[in-house]
């Protein structure tokens, strides 16, 4: 039987358990309490209809989720024809569900630098984290969502070039033909939005320790509260942040705590096992939508690592997806893990992972696989590239 995980969590503070058994944790140094599972909406408006989105939201909230993740660019794949549909699906659910606004933690993201994304701004320019673009983005998001404020605003990816791996590598290019907006200017825009009551808190995404330090410094210079969180890709296949970032997030006594939010815990679905050698991916799966992602995955040790983790899951009576999600939830530095689904059945399976008691035997089995495949995305197979 699944048992609620109640082990000590000194880094990501466990502050409560809902009647449904979902834990809540404090976001950074803020007054926000967020569920250990966040519901991501990047399929709503593309792979899912508004009615399906509403069904997922209703079910997740019944299970104790209070944290919803969206972005101005959703749904994926980002394109002008569908941009903003995720926000509108959330707005439709908010109106029909009658859930009080203060019981829904809404997180959204503004696009970082990209010369190709010319449909977001009225000027026709590519996206950039300038003061004017940040404010325009938030104003447009509020209109689509039908709310007066968002609880959390994050920069989807940095203004400057930051090398990423896994899913995030698609977001960035090295060229900055329009120059880079200074971090201080970005913080000044955030400060203005906080003072205007349009956002409550802010955070970063797809960032590293150097960026975190610079944002903390710039925020302090103008009296802006430090970033509340960092949202990065983290999964059984991508654990580099444990060494390169987490100590700076949570273990520096001189700094206010900054929560870690894990996205892509299934590594774009590959950790579900549905892309194994024995399975045929669906036409609308993310590996089919992003063909280059499928090719890069197959060219690495990723498939071998996934097969090994699938064996661990079977041994412990878990589905591959549940193993991957329970692993994220068991890390003491993870405040919340963002999940997504295209069906209610998938969602129910994924939510069950947050009720699982992580044992030492399971930790040892996962660690043994990790020692064999510590960074499978970066290890090419013979003939793979």
TrEMBL record:
Residues 39-361 form the NADP-dependent oxidoreductase domain. CDD domains: AKR_Tas-like. Pfam families: Aldo_ket_red. One of its GO terms (molecular function) is oxidoreductase activity. The keyword Zinc does not apply. SUPFAM superfamilies: NAD(P)-linked oxidoreductase. Keywords: Oxidoreductase. The keyword NAD does not apply. This is NADP-dependent oxidoreductase domain-containing protein. It comes from Prymnesium parvum.
